[in-house]
Amino acid sequence: YPSGNLAIVVVREKKQLICIVQEDKPRNAKIQAVFKSDGRSTCYYPNGAVWINMSIQGGQYLDQEGRRVRRWTWPNSVMSSGPHVPLSPIFISLNRHVGVRILGQDKIVVSFLAMGQQAKFNVGTKVQVSDVGQLPPPTWLGEDELLLLAFRVRILRLFDRLRGCLNFPSNEQWDKIKPPTYLITQTLKILHLCTTSDISDELRSSVRAIVN
Fold first, then answer.
1. Beta strand 107-114 with 68-73: parallel, antiparallel or unpaired?
2. Helical H runs in 39-142?
3. In angstroms, how far is CA 209 from the centroid of its own chain?
4. How far is it, in rounded angstroms, from Cα 136 to Cα 146?
5. Could you report how far apart the first and last alpha carbons of the chain are, in Å?
6. Where are the domains of the chain?
7. In whole angstroms, what is the distance from residue 90 CA to residue 56 CA?
8. What are the tens digits of pLDDT across the range 86-121?
9. Which of 101, 133, 149, 155 is deepest in the core (most CB within 10 A)?
10. CATH of 8-129, one of 3.90.930, 2.60.40, 1.20.58, 3.30.1380
């Protein structure tokens, strides 16, 4: 950056390359994006929430509250279920100097612009899956991750109820109003993870009590 802080770094980890975008801070700079040559990439909002998440099958674009705005699948990718959805070009600005342009699986460009000069990094890669049996194994969440997800949903639901109280202070039925659809969906996903993850019955009961 013009400030002298490191903006973009490319490192090699075993057989893959990783491109990392950092915010413009001298210390404890947050990661704003990670692009891996194995086809997995993630961009983050300034508040740390996931903005764009991509894999070898496709990707999704989320808002700052975690709701999916759009999703897509790469051409020739194999999905276990659901229709193939083409990508519409995406342009986002991670900060005032760094932007990301997504036109295809092998056409993902990180642009850096400062003091009238520009540098571009092509971080796209052509990774295809020709058979469902070759898909990478699912990532199982640990106990800490499940608890964090459960508490996050719980807090968001409490905030939603608080907004209901502030907007309709005289409404005696506000506690009977259902939470937003995206919170219901996230709750169902967490409950499903409880049944598929290798966790203790005690933790499973705790997670269910938190989100219900």
1. unpaired
2. none
3. 26
4. 21
5. 46
6. 8-129, 143-211
7. 17
8. 888 999 999 999 999 999 999 999 999 999 999 999
9. 149
10. 3.90.930
The 3-state DSSP class for residue 127 equals coil
CA-CA distance, 189 to 203, in Å (whole number)? 16
Report the percent of the chain where pLDDT is more than 90.
Answer: 30
Residue 181: CB atoms within 10 A of its CB come to 9
Q: Quote the pTM value.
A: 0.59
* pLDDT, tens digit, 9 for 90 and up, residues 121-158: 999 887 655 444 444 444 445 677 778 888 888 888 88
**Tokens in use for 91?**
């342009």
Q: Which two tokens stand for residue 166?
A: 């502030």
| Residue 1 DSSP label | -
Instruction: Fill in the amino acid letter for 38.
Output: D
